Amino acid sequence: MVATTSLRLKPLKQRWPLPPASRILYARAQWEDGKSAIDHGIRVHRLIPDKLLRKNVGISSKLIRLYAFSGHTQKAHELFDKMPKRNASAFPWNSIISGYAEKGVGLIHVGEEVHRHVIRRGFGSTGFILNALVDKYAKCGDIVKAQKLFHQIGTKDLVSWNSMLIGYMRHELITKALNLFRLMICDGIEPDSVSLSALFVAKLPLSIGKQIQGWVLRLGTNQELCIVNSMVDFYADRKKLMQVRCLFEHMHEWDIVSWNSVISAHSKHPDEALSYFEKMVKSGALPDGVTFVSLLLACAHLGKLEDGESLFRIMKERYDISPRMEHYGCMVNLYGRFGLIDKAFDFVMKRMEFEAGPTVWGALLYACYRYGNVKIGEVAAQHLFELELDNEHNFELLMKIYKNAELGKIIIPPYPRQTFLDDPLMYCVGSATDSEFHCVILSATD
């Protein structure tokens, strides 16, 4: 059981010790690696002589895949078109298809165009080309075409099955995915970590998830990190915290996904979430932006204002993580729950380094509704009207603010640490014209 002692009793440095600078730089470098991969690719591309690119299909194919994966479709096609031997090998075709698939580019017409060229060049029945096409169509939303191509594959390998399985799961076709999983086993293909992780990601019934967990135990893959992480997420989504803790505590190692999963699972139990964060830092692991979103949500759930402000501060000061929209939204939500509307508004106008989005203005508008702040509510609503033209809820919420103002009513929580996200909730509705308060049951959407 996780200790739930209040972290406020400890000094900040003792609670969340500062990690070595070298570890921060290493984590930063890992993050930058993915971010700047395309820049490195372009620099390498410039250094390679055109003669070598025309001669070496392998190098060209890797560059094509990088460009397509990074969303630079025009550069990928330019390089592809310059390859004189592209029709002599399936690798360039596979690279451009796989690059699109990995990036998840939702351009059906591009996939179809490439598909037609593949068939014309005689690679239409090549196994790994078909695997890439199945993956591409599934990610672009055409699951029917992906399924048709899957059935055209003569000898299906593990990649074939996984591509189709992930496609079904992405579209939440649970029955089809489970039937495919059974066929896969009957065909003599042993599922790997990709297959099993994909199953746990989906919205599976709890009973089915337990059966698959049993399969994992029988295969002896219950210590593979990505599988256990998926199982932790699976039980966390279903609020089965005992299973989450049991799986987490028995893991041989933890990565950032493991820590984020267990912290997120305890978002409605902030003491436990903060305790896991303390363990995470002590273990030498470095948090990322996702970690702090979960922690700030946990603080908002039970009104831990001081902890929330401390976490937001050390996120940048200690870990060099720039706040994203989600972090600002959490802080506005936290201030709003305490009725600190002016402070929340100043936070948006003065602290944010970029224009606020619907997440932030929406949290502020709801706080204004809850505490009857017409002036700031109007400002938040005006921004939301520009950002979300089709969202009628913003208009309805502003109308309720006006209505409550006319009636002289405000809505405040009956207890300082009431969890506001439970539905239905009990609020005290009071009148500004008299001292009488009445506790009533309201829905969160009322």
Automatic annotation (TrEMBL):
GO molecular function: RNA binding
Superkingdom of origin organism: Eukaryota
UniProt xrefs under Pfam families: PPR, PPR_2
Parts of the chain that traverse the membrane: none
Single Gene Ontology BP annotation: plant organ development
Classification via InterPro entries: PPR_At4g14850-like_plant (IPR046960), PPR_rpt (IPR002885), TPR-like_helical_dom_sf (IPR011990)
PANTHER family named in the record: PENTATRICOPEPTIDE REPEAT-CONTAINING PROTEIN, UMP-CMP KINASE
Name of the protein: Pentatricopeptide repeat-containing protein
Taxon lineage: Eukaryota, Viridiplantae, Streptophyta, Embryophyta, Tracheophyta
